[in-house]
Amino acid sequence: MTEVGDLAVAIGSPFGFQQTVTSGIVSALGREIPQLIGGEEYKVVVDLIQTDAAINMGNSGGALANIEGKVMGINTLIISPNQMYGLMPTSVGLGFAIPSDIATNIANQIIKYGKSRIPIIG
């Protein structure tokens, strides 16, 4: 079971640098992140794992694992001050991952139904 303070390893290919590994901790659980769609409407991505392991563009879809190598989640998004200025977001220690149990449920739905019945996944 994932807990706040657990060591976290983010695996991915940031900016095309394949098989990159960064480390940090699980900073929080159950985060909700609002995202703008079409001007003023918002959707909310819920139940995310927050980590301070460096996650950059190209890490999305990679694993967030614990120190034993068990996948805790799938790296999904970051929050960066650069986004406020229309610049490419870069890691400032606010990375988020979809918990592995939710990702597994979504994958099973896609296999069974050809699509996910969960409307918002990140």
UniProtKB/TrEMBL annotation:
GO biological process, one term: proteolysis
UniProt key word NAD: no
A GO MF label: serine-type endopeptidase activity
Gene3D superfamilies: 2.40.10.120
Swiss-Prot/TrEMBL keywords: Hydrolase, Protease
InterPro entries per record: Chloro_Bact_Ser_Proteases, Peptidase_S1_PA, Peptidase_S1C
Record protein name field: Uncharacterized protein
Species per Swiss-Prot/TrEMBL record: marine sediment metagenome
